[in-house]
Design a protein that fits this description.
This protein is mainly beta. Helix content is about 10%, strand content about 40%. The strands form 3 sheets. It has an 18-stranded antiparallel barrel. The longest helix is centred in the N-terminal third of the chain and has 32 residues.
Amino acid sequence: MRARASEATARRARALALLALSLLPFASLAEEKYPPDPRPDREIERRRPGPSEPERYTPPPIDPRQVPPPAPLVPREMPPVPDRWRLMQALGFHHPWFDPYDQNVLKGDLPIATDPAFRARFPGLASRLSDRWFVNVGVVSDSVLEFRRLPTPTAPQSPGRAGTNDVFGQSRQALFTETLITSLALIEGDTTFRPPEYELRFTPAFNVNRARVEERRVLSIDPRSGTTRDDAHVGIQEAFADVHLRDVSARYDFDSVRVGIQPFQSDFRGFLFQDSALGVRLFGTRDDNRWQYNLAWLRRLEKDTNSGLNDLGRPPRGDDVLVANAYRQDFPVPGFTSQATLVLDVNREAASTFYDANGFLVRPAVLGDARAHDYRVAYLGYNGDGHFGRWNLTTSLYAALGHDDRNPIAGRAQSIRAGFAAAELSRDADWLRLRLDALFQSGDRDPFDGKATGFDAILENPQFAGAATSFWIRQAVPLVGGGGVTLSGRNGVLADLRSSKDQGQSNFVNPGLVLVGGGIDADLQPELRVSADVSYLRFADTTVLGVLRNQAPPAREIGWDISAALRWRPFMSQNLVLEASAAMLLPGRGLRELYDEGERGPQYSVLVNLVAAF
């Protein structure tokens, strides 16, 4: 019995020892939480057994003089980094200069001043620049091969074939054009969350083109020039300085000013004005970027006839565009952006005439009394872009109000009162997008009543109803026998009877246009998209066409525009894009009366476009 009792006592002793060891950490924590009383001589008050309050501890006062100063030689947790932008390079990771997707000093990922190659070549400049200066270099090659059939007049002086006496000649044409666009930007600032402090941008463009037709006097006013033309041009598309004036909120709402040759687009789809012009633009944001505004004065530059690039070899045009607009995001519903705009076009080109590079008179247009004139027109507009639930909507509404001192068709002064409306409604269904398009351009019912009611833009480039793949929008259809004008300009949707979209003047005595159609975009693969569009076109009023052709007004029906396009991005990016498209205009009654299209078949266009970008 004694042995068993002593064994039980030993077990209890071992258990108490283990319990004491397990409570040691908690005892240390208790000592930290409740430090010993700094007054050891204090007599401990004895209390009788029973409930009682815990003893309250009052810490002693702190003497700042007893706090030791920080040690200056304490080792840092991290060694100093001489260039925080190039941590990966310091670890041995290096990327080739032609790779735009990894860190690249040419694409604004790394400051230029700390680049070893730049410092070695320009040591003086590198020492003056801080590590907040970046460069962005871009190169785009745009190659276009195009085959088309357009109504083509026979040359009156020297037709290309013996015995030719018809008004219309052979109509097949071919065009090749190559444009190389280079861009250099020097940017100062931390631009992740805020606009740059300064930006200097310079963008020259180099173009070569070759055109071949079947009739003389199509490519040049001189019939001796033949049926082939080779041309080249260098244009400056951007040359501006952008200065950040101030931040107006903690979330970097700002005001900035931009001076020089700069691109500007007045609405979401380019219906009214899209150009690279000389000017001054004040712009900025408010209310956490929900409000955006632009105030701009732009003077249009002359364009090269065959490339469409800016021609700085000629003085700027006497055509000023003043813009004031405001954008509101999430209005009237989240996901939709609304814009209100006021654009004033003041054209003062009545004092001179202008011939293009091919010798054709484009200002004033060769129709009516062909006298130079001035005009002033104000555009009041509303534009919207976004979605209502699963429905996508883009819309534009414009009213044009102004005065034309002497319209060449009417031969007298005109009050401008015209309107324009366009809308695209679409819906996505997985890999498909279905689109519906509608457009209305008011026409002039009476050219001689002193009211010009045909709408015209300043310089349009509409991304609408198939855009460049559409025959009506892509091609400039000449009004044969009605003056040196076209029914619609190249890369333009309006039936405005202008001599040239780029170099001519706006004309508000025109037949107008009604367009209704639809299309589909199918993403068969991430890198492959197929699109198709069908549009029905008719003039709003053909009275002015009858006046120019000295005949009864033709029927209003233009016909059906049918187009299809294939777009391939082999790397699933915009660095290499190949697009091929075909379009056909099936003539309606009005077009057959203008061009006798029943005898020659439909007009068509085949286009191959290759874009490579760095």
